[in-house]
Amino acid sequence: MKFTKNLVILFLAISIIYFAFRNSGDISLEGEWEPSKVILNNEDYFPTDELSAFFAIGNKIIITDWGHTIHIQKVGNDDLIAKFVIEYDQKNDLQIVLSSKEKSLNGCFKTEIDTIHIGPQSYIVKVKMKSNKSSLSFERIVVIPPWKPPFPRKGQV
């Protein structure tokens, strides 16, 4: 009984330490993104001109890590959905492999991620994905709130 109790406690301590300090190394692109330019089969999907880019309020790209899918939503059109897998090539460059019913969204896309510091706790994250005939460019503003210490409770100070 004492041996199993010590074994269980040791297993819990090791698993807590493992999950507390592990770094998966995966890139998370999950969230809602604003598309800056989408080209499918060498044709602009959106924006097609400056005026439509100005009024393109409903256009967005949603990436979900849970289902590993990218939803490209354009106002007035059906959504384009593609499944993705994040890989690295021989040169250790990031590439995303897409598979979709839309033929132009199939294949390997070389991916570049750029982060621009715009304020004390705010950044613009830009993602560019490019294949032979198609490219996706989208961005989002990320605001990281400052750390606030917990309010001291009675008897702690």
**Strand coverage percent:** 35-45%
Spatial extent as radius of gyration: 22 Å
* Percent range of helical residues: 10-25%
Elements, N to C (H/E): HEEHEEEEEEE
Write up this protein:
The protein is of the alpha+beta class and 157 residues long. 17% of the residues lie in helices and 44% in strands. An 8-stranded antiparallel barrel has the order 1-3-4-5-6-7-8-9.
Properties at a glance:
alpha+beta, 157 residues, eight-stranded antiparallel β-barrel, single chain
Task: Provide the fold topology.
Elements: H1 2-21, E1 31-40, E2 43-46, H2 50-55, E3 60-64, E4 69-73, E5 80-88, E6 94-100, E7 107-117, E8 122-130, E9 135-143
Antiparallel strand pairs: 1-2, 1-3, 1-9, 3-4, 4-5, 5-6, 6-7, 7-8, 8-9
Short structural description:
This protein has 157 residues and is an alpha+beta fold.
